[in-house]
Amino acid sequence: MKIVITRRIPEAGVETLVHAFGTEQVRRHEEERPMTRAVLLDALRGATAVLCTITEKMDAEAMDAAGDQLKIIANMAVGYDNINLADAAARNILVTNTPGVLTEATADLAWALILGAARRTGEAERCLRAGLWEGWGPLQFLGASVHGKTLGIFGMGRIGRAVARRALGFDMPVLYCDTNRLDAETERQLHARLVDKDTLLRESDILTLHCPLTPETRHAFTLREFKQMKRGALIVNTSRGPVIKEEDLSAALREDLIFAAGLDVYEHEPAVHAALLKQEQAVLLPHLGSATVETRATMARMAAENIVAALSGSEPPNRVLLPS
Ligand code: GLV
């Protein structure tokens, strides 16, 4: 048995694996940074199970580098666009993720970005830290009000709904766009109404993205969409970077098509579109959605528990299936 942990992760995950399989079987890669591709392929050789993160691309090449004995790839993330499900299914490799446990942390961070982008907190803090603040001013850093505005949610899964719940405290009507409709009672509780994408773009004051990255959602937000949004609107993305075409977002901010953006995820992480880095109306965080001590420990343990289940012949609790 060889269980490969591709990055330094919270101890809770390592302990679960060591407890189940013994220290010798668990190969930890203690780097803070992701392994290079060559080092990853080498580390995978002979693996029975892999506990990986979104920074490892697990495709046919990686699976073949591991070998035929590979039984499970347990992603320490809810999103699994880094794993090729068809390649895994063709090799009878189980794939699992960590749903549910990061919902609240990610919804909190979406709200941090909503409030930060609306109230220009990054820009204002940079001014203060640079020693440029000259005291209170009636016209200083005026932002956008959030209370009572219309919140648009693209992707109304667990995280989208958690963001909507928080919006109740801000008295916000919620519009949402999703392939599935919520039941009537949930819609009523969340003050939420299902709309098409054009209506979402036209009517939202604050638009927040919570969809998975799929061929359908890749570049779902380009200049065409930004042109349909309200001039004073905000867009926030805590889902996956490629859902937004970054170059177009930067152009939309430059041309004041929208008021501001709050991003936690990027098209080509860790790179960020150079122009965005210079734009004051963009609040930029380094992919922190689930980054709380408690949440990351729970995610690590959950990923490890999926491995323990799979290698002891049971169905792992968080199996991801290839869409039919
Ligand atoms: C993080 O981005 C996740 O999908 O858990």
Tell me what you see in this structure.
The strands form 2 sheets. A 7-stranded parallel sheet has the order 8-7-6-9-10-11-12, with helices on both faces. It is built from 13 helices and 12 strands. It is α/β, with parallel strands linked by helices and 324 residues long. The protein has 2 domains: 3-101 and 292-311, NAD(P)-binding Rossmann-like Domain (Rossmann fold, 3-Layer(aba) Sandwich), CATH 3.40.50.720; 103-284, 3-Layer(aba) Sandwich (Rossmann fold), CATH 3.40.50.720. Glyoxylic acid binds at residues 54, 77-79, 102, 289-290.
Topology summary:
Elements: E1 3-5, H1 11-21, E2 26-28, H2 37-44, E3 49-52, H3 60-66, E4 72-75, H4 85-90, E5 94-96, H5 103-119, H6 121-129, E6 151-154, H7 158-167, E7 174-177, H8 184-190, E8 192-194, H9 197-203, E9 206-209, H10 223-228, E10 234-237, H11 246-254, E11 260-263, H12 274-278, E12 282-284, H13 293-311
Parallel strand pairs: 1-2, 1-3, 3-4, 4-5, 6-7, 6-9, 7-8, 9-10, 10-11, 11-12
The structure holds glyoxylic acid (GLV).
